[in-house]
Amino acid sequence: MMAAARPIQARPKTPPLREQWAEVWRLLQGLLAILFNWLLTFALLGLLGLAGFGFWQKLQVPITTIEVTGGTPEVSAAWVRRELKSVTGTDIWAINLNAVQAQLMKNTWLTEVNIRRIWPGTLAVQIAIHHPIARWQGDQLLDADGSVFNPSGDTQGFDSAMLNEAAMPNLSGPDGRQWPMWERYLSLKPALQAVGLVMTGLIEDSRGSLDVVLQGGTRIRLGTQQIESRLQRLLDVYNTTLSGKLDQITAIDLRYTNGFAVQWRELPKPDEPLKKAFERKVEPKGSAQARETKDTDH
Predict the structure, then answer these.
(1) Cα gap 60→228, rounded to integer Å
(2) Which member of 96, 220, 222, 224 has the greatest number of CB atoms within 10 A?
């Protein structure tokens, strides 16, 4: 019995050489297209980079103008420009705004500094300052918001006359008491003005005892208790007893239960006796004692 013969498999026919070259050409065309696209992309990116660099170079202009808003006599626009003189001529985008702000904030009058660039060559500076309402401890200032600051000694354009006693009161007391003392000053000032007395300061010691300072340096000692009633005791008789004599008086002590003592710079003349509205003693120069009963507070 004969075995079945295995069928002969047909071999694939090799494509003609022409077709082979055609396939190679198609591959080359695809590769060239890819390379061309990449080259075109890089060329466009290069052109954009050059254009951007040129545009950036155009933006790099020096600062020629410094605009200042919010300038005051304490911190003038001219002072700000002098402080930033070194910035003039610097490329606008090379300026460190934080460093410029810190430089200006060394002036203790300033509370806020905002800086921005305005192309092509302007630096805009907006400033805000403290608004003092009183002296504190002699060499400091009390701001309207209740804070205390030391005014810069080298502030250009600052008018020191603004801080004399005639312009603002001089308050002195324990640390942290500046605002209660300011409120006390505001409450006492109108009552004194009603009889023609000008209040220039208020002093509080560590025990809370108050002294009012009048124009000319005369002090009214009020102590710690019944401040308003004690002051009213003086005001009720001031026009008939002490009016016109204030320049002769060093201090008026109201720390008594039924009167007050006057400390004179010089003894009154015998023919000009002091009218008495309350029981009190007129003391010679350098003495503040009186024989009346004195309150226990100081």
Answers:
(1) 68
(2) 222
